[in-house]
Amino acid sequence: MHNTIQPKVTLVGAGPGDPDLLTLKGVKALAEANVVLYDALANEEIMIHAPKDAIKIFVGKRKGCHEYTQDQINQLIVDNALTYGNVVRLKGGDPFIFGRGSEEIEFAESFGIPTFVVPGISSSIAVPAYQGISLTKRGVSESFWVITGTTSDRNLSNDVALAAQSSATVVILMGMSKLSQIVSLFQKESKGETPVAIIQNGTTPQEKIGVGTINTIQGVVAEKKLSSPAIIVIGEVVKESIKLKGFHEEFILSNIA
User: Fold this and answer.
1) Which of 69, 101, 118 is where one domain is finished?
2) Closest Cα to residue 25, out of 141, 152, 116?
């Protein structure tokens, strides 16, 4: 029986939250899965694309709450592939954007297991897009940075200070716990008036938004009770969004008042 098992691991990016943002290739990969290992960030509605009899294992990590360590997840991927065959590792967003997907692929490959990657739509691009924020715009922004707010040693990435010196749009993931530090770095570069949008649970029905400037955004977060998971978008392109026009007008009027 075990001789007929063909181990295979496919890393699938589940997208930013809206289940319709899963790719067709991702749907096809799930449909063929014997085992699905899925994250907290992958919308559970996506699991309907997996066969009813597929083994489904939640291996998600949330701040302060880890079902499994990364080493255990790596081992689970390999064990399930060798025992059951076709494993789909479903990860929120894109598996290679702060998703530790490369570590999982490398571990599986070290056992001689064939691996495949299905890219996912990254929240760093999709969540701003849903609010009409174009990360690049002719005459406004020529580039964008995507930075993790919290590194593996729990510190703010040094790249944030570099990004604050540029004219690029800056997108920070997992940065809410470091917001005051981020604000300080941008203020140091005299960027206090730079527009900021914070989008919590982007692309889902639970989405919440706060808009302000570097100088005001902490007050906005407190007022609107924004928290993780959220994306921080800093740059002039925030002001260019037609969808967020109401937020800017409300902000200007409250400042005049």
Assistant:
1) 118
2) 116
